[in-house]
């Protein structure tokens, strides 16, 4: 996504949640410092090599969804590419699926992401204003291929495909990298599994933004964007029935 199109959404999100831009910039600078030189070069081409022309299965962590049933998909020359959103990486690995790409801001079970990276997954590490400590802790642990991302203006060494949460950012990234179709598995944008009321409210607001951004991607993007439900049916993003329940 061109930054001129993404910038108004980014500004609205920062205003809604009170994210100071200076902290966003500091996180991006920290990530660039921590990434090995190879991770700062050719990011777009490396992502396209994994996703272009393939069906991308973006895997979320909706309660009870489990791993995507890849055997239900018709055979394809290159096969589907699994793109795991953060904590869904563990779900995939437990089912014997090594994602092609992992999109993470490092607030899930990162050890699973490190394991998958060592087994061939490309990990897109996202920097934002309040995850500098996680960047410092985890980026040096990854043994394999990395790409850095942030939500701000174009910056050498980092990508910005658009998107806010790991799940919708993964969909934007797949579209940007030339996937032929994007199936969203394990997405339930109404379910919030948090005991703390304040945390639950923030999560609801984040999921509302995710739903809005996915709807905008479906209406303006080049790639078909579809919810893949647990019963095996499909629903175009933007329809009223927008969960995998």
A few lines on this structure:
The protein is 39% helix and 15% strand. With 245 residues, the chain is of the alpha/beta class.
Structure description:
The protein is an alpha/beta fold and 245 residues long. It has one domain: sialyltransferase cstii, chain A, CATH 3.90.1480. Helix content is 39%, strand content 15%. It contains eight helices and nine strands. The chain has a nine-stranded mixed sheet with strand order 6-5-4-3-2-1-7-8-9, sandwiched between helices. The longest helix has 24 residues. The C terminus is likely disordered.
Proportion of residues in β-strands: 15-25%
**Total of domains:** 1
Looking at CATH, which topology would you report? sialyltransferase cstii, chain A
Taking all residues together, what is the mean pLDDT? 93
The H/E string reads HHHEEHEHEHEEHEHEE
- In CATH's first tier, which class applies? Alpha Beta
Query: Treating each run of at least 4 consecutive H or I residues as one helix, how many helices?
Result: 8
What is the number of E strands?
A: 9
The CATH architecture assignment turns out to be Alpha-Beta Complex
Question: Radius of gyration, rounded?
Answer: 17 Å
C-alpha geometry: globular
Low-confidence parts: 240-245
End-to-end Cα distance, whole Å, is: 30 Å
Helical content (DSSP H or I, runs of 4+): 25-40%
Biggest sheet overview: 9 strands, mixed
Helix/strand-derived category reads alpha/beta
**Sheet with the most strands: spatial strand order:** 6-5-4-3-2-1-7-8-9
